[in-house]
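Exercise 3.2. Students should predict the tertiary structure of the chain below and write it as structure tokens, then compare their answer with the key that follows.

Predict this chain's 3D structure.
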Amino acid sequence: MPILYQGTAEFCGAASAAPAHLGARQPTLARAECRQAFFVGPIVRDSVTMRGKGYNFTERVRRVLARAREESLHFNHEYVGTEHMLLALIGQDEGVVAATLQNLGVDPAKIRKQVETIVQKGRAAPHDQDLPYTSRAKKVLELAMDEARQLNHNYVGTEHLLLGLLREERGIAAQVLNDAGVTTKTARAEIVRLLQGREGATQRTGGASAHEYHFASGPINVGRPVYNLNVSSAGDRTHSSVRAAVVQAEVSPTLAAGMERTALLAVEAATSGAQIIVFPETWLPGYPAWLDVCRDAGLWNHEPVKAVFERHAAESVDVAGEDGAALSRLAAEVGAVIVIGVVERVTRGPGRGTLFNSILIYSSDGKLLNHHRKLIPTYTERLVWGQGDTEGLRAVDTPVARVGGLLCWEHWMPLARQALHDSGEDIHAALWPTLLETHHIASRHYAFEGRCFVLAAGSLMRASSLPKELEPHSDRVQGSDDWVLRGGSAIIAPDGSYVVEPVYDTATILTAELDLGAVRREQMTLDVSGHYARRDCFDFRVTGARRQTPGVE
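Answer key:
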């Protein structure tokens, strides 16, 4: 998972001596700000997790923090302080902060001049470009997250950052803003007024249920990425390309935690330019690996197993309810197609007591394009999941390409494969709980047979995440740190070769630029739905009753 603070460093030399380049006007403050710094990487990580609660940093905040680093380099400083954040923040020409400062009579040019008077340039450029945050700058980020909590926002925007700068009263930024007549009280009042005046504001009002999530920023434009998709239409993609991402991470203990982690990872992938983001099979709320590695999982009327199933059902996804709506908002928020595997629960009507292994495809505008339930649960999975249907056994047009997907051992169902080949895929999402060698054989074969890119996604899970009610088999689990799901995600080209080799035992986001022209080039030699199909010799059709899929038109 992305982290913000990776370590600490004493970088100012003697703790009692202020750097000469900070000037004499604020020696005590300068010495205190530079005493201890917290590293954040070359620019800034895409999201943060503090005290177990995840918050998205909006793209605009990330740009501000990246600009703060540039401001620090401009001053030849060896750290990022509140003064650099302030200079970056006043450089924003749109958004809530820009409007707030303008309405409060702040002149950005005067702010910059005052900062430059207080903080002088260093003598030489820093050797290390990986600049740390000062302790006060770190405190500003913590205060910004606190402001987000107070406003019931599940994101950290520039308005929260401004309030954080003001609340860190001993920082240079707060002193400069106060001199300009801006206080925490006046800024907060103006921000609240602006937010309340925006149409469509979606602030939480409290009393949210356990399955109510708020990923979208609601009242303001969070600066979501706008991508040049280089795609003219659904039927004309010659020489077009798509940037794809496959998420490989550890599963979460609850659906709520999983939703938060999904949002963080989606933001991270979209920030790297991904236009389609694929998550593993049953990513939410996590694959029931206990079926394969724990004792007595198949015993009739076994109370510990029934308790585990009860929790598995309670943490599963209501596609037609708030869970599905949250995923829809997330796809729209990051501006990318999201393909995600879930354990689905039905809250009303037929099948209310049955769980399904499902794959959901959301468009970059948040629309649920396809909802496929796994046709046959594999082996022990039949203890907990029901059989799916053919309603979602198809590829769909998305803003980036024609996309389809299958779950796990459906890749060894020849007729299921043929149904998707006939439907036509540019990109196929192959969702697995984890990928063993045989799973890679199936995924690479699918890419070759279907002449499409395959995004193969697997999860990570340690033995420590197994249900406490059940005892692991000693011959399968030796310790709590053992991997029971090892990932193995990969990206595969239409000729069956690897674009990105499999990765095991590591949390990562695999990314690649997919040349969709390769799909057409490989179809010259093989098209199992066309010139290599021999319809005069074989007859194939998909049967089955149509299911009313909530949210799918």
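Discussion points: The mean pLDDT is 81. The radius of gyration is 26 Å.
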